[in-house]
């Protein structure tokens, strides 16, 4: 029994209750270390307390998250495995037994991936102004439940399962297994799962030039999609997962083709359900409401909705900064060379976002057109490009002067001068990071 500040004893039931409120396994651990009473109470109900904390840490998709950990993949990762047995193995609604230390660790690792993906999903499809998920608890549950089921599916049918001696019959068997594994879920939850696969596919499509490659990347599952999003490429994934060499002509891509869509299509047909349409938004079946879907650009009123740029998604702006140097500056190598050096660190997305934010402090030095352009506004692609073109060179001029550069005399034609492109002597002896005071120089 623990004594409270006023000397009154605190009931064991209350201690038990306090333990069940721990948000993570680490907090549970440190709370138990604080007093013997907590430790003793935990020892009396280890199962229910662990379960409560697991629920706090992982959320209501805990049964799906546990199945991902406990599924006996090795037993079934073969084309000859019986689909019915695969479905029955370690079902979601089995009682949650004691969660081992290793499982706790893995639960938290997987939960980190799922939460990160939910943040990305929220930014792209729910609300473009926040980097942290704004999904309601109901929406989050649908999303996470589907994501864990996708994780299980990808673990069971991994990209690495490809082998050269797989014939059509083999592939047909695997396809039957895939359909069986998804067929155990109710239609509404499969529709949710379909939307989440569409979201993952969108991430893969941003980096993959080819539809077959996208399907292979999809088979790397939630971990793969998260890695692709973070690195904006699938290069590291190729090394990590050792998936088949896509350029190798012998690789039979049939094994990956329509990875999720084929089994889902089989199920829609079997159940006589209208299949989802290609043009359905990714938010369908997951979100009850999308924030700012009809928003327009703060400057030109172009429609954009969630595609508009805000502080929360600047770091996703697909730009190559040297292309945004104004007019002929981008062809002047005495400018571009030091510019590459000065902007090298902006290849890091978080640096790029902070950098774009800083450029808003230069608006007073450009034309009155930019009065009132705020970093907190929403911009369409064209307006953000225009803003960057007008401000980037001024930032660079300051940057060079700060670095000890003394600008030579201004060229009359400034950034618009064409001579700077083909006459190196002129480019070196005149400053072109300035506003033209005369018309075109030939
Ligand atoms: Zn605009
Ligand atoms: Zn010039």
Mind explaining what this structure looks like?
The chain has helices spanning 12-20, 25-34, 36-44, 46-58, 62-70, 73-76, 83-88, 101-126, 137-156, 168-183, 187-207, 211-218, 221-231, 235-241, 261-271, 333-343, 349-359, 381-402, 419-422, 424-429, and strands at residues 2-3, 9-10. The chain is mainly α. The protein folds into two domains: 59-271, no CATH class; 313-429, no CATH class. The protein has a two-stranded antiparallel ribbon. The model has no long low-confidence stretch (mean pLDDT 90). One zinc ion binds at residues 411, 413, 417, 419-420, 426, 430, 432, 441.
Model regions low in confidence, pLDDT < 50 over at least 5 residues: none
Oligomer: single chain
One letter per element, helices H and strands E, the order comes to EEHHHHHHHHHHHHHHHHHHHH
What is the makeup of the main sheet?
2 strands, antiparallel
How many E strands?
A: 2
Summarize the structure.
The protein is mostly helical and 442 residues long. Helix content is 53%, strand content 1%. Helix 5 (62-70) runs parallel beside helix 9 (137-156), helix 8 crosses helix 13 (221-231) and helix 11 (187-207) runs parallel beside helix 13 (221-231).
């Amino acid at each position: 029994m623990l004594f409270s500040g006023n000397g009154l004893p605190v009931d064991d039931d209350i201690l038990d209750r306090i333990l069940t409120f721990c948000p993570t396994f680490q907090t549970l651990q440190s709370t138990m270390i604080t007093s013997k009473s907590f430790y003793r109470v935990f020892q009396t109900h280890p199962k229910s307390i662990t379960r409560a904390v697991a629920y706090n840490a992982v959320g209501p998709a805990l049964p799906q998250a546990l199945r991902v950990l406990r599924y006996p993949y090795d037993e079934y990762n073969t084309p000859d495995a019986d689909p019915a047995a695969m479905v029955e193995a370690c079902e979601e609604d089995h009682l949650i037994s004691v969660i081992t230390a290793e499982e706790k660790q893995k639960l938290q690792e997987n939960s980190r991936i799922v939460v990160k993906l939910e943040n990305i999903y929220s930014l792209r499809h729910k609300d473009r102004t926040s980097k942290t998920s704004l999904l309601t608890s109901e929406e989050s549950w649908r999303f996470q439940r589907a994501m864990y089921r996708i994780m299980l599916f990808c673990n069971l049918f991994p990209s690495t399962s490809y082998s050269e001696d797989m014939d059509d019959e083999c592939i047909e068997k695997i396809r039957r297994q895939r359909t069986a594994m998804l067929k155990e879920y109710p239609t509404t939850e499969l529709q949710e799962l379909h939307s989440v696969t569409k979201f993952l596919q969108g991430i893969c499509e941003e980096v993959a030039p080819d539809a077959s490659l996208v399907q292979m990347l999809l088979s790397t599952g939630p971990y793969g999609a998260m890695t692709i999003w973070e690195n904006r490429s699938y290069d590291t994934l190729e090394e990590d997962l050792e998936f088949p060499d896509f350029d190798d002509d012998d690789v039979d891509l049939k094994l990956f083709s329509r990875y999720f869509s084929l089994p889902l299509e089989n199920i829609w047909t079997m159940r006589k359900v209208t299949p989802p349409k290609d043009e359905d938004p990714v938010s369908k079946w997951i979100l009850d409401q999308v924030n700012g879907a009809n928003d327009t650009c703060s400057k030109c009123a172009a429609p954009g909705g969630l595609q508009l740029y805000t502080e929360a998604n600047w770091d996703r702006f697909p730009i190559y900064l040297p292309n945004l140097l104004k007019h002929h500056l981008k062809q002047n190598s005495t400018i571009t060379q030091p510019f590459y050096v000065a902007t090298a660190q902006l290849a890091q997305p978080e640096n790029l976002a902070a950098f774009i934010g800083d450029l808003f402090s230069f608006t007073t030095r450009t034309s009155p057109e930019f009065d009132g352009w705020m970093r907190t506004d929403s911009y369409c692609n064209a307006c953000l490009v225009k803003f960057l073109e007008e401000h980037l060179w001024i930032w660079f001029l300051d940057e060079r002067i700060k670095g000890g550069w003394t600008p030579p005399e201004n060229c009359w034609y400034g950034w618009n001068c064409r001579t700077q492109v083909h006459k190196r002597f002129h480019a070196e002896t005149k400053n072109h990071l300035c506003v033209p005071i005369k018309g075109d120089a030939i």
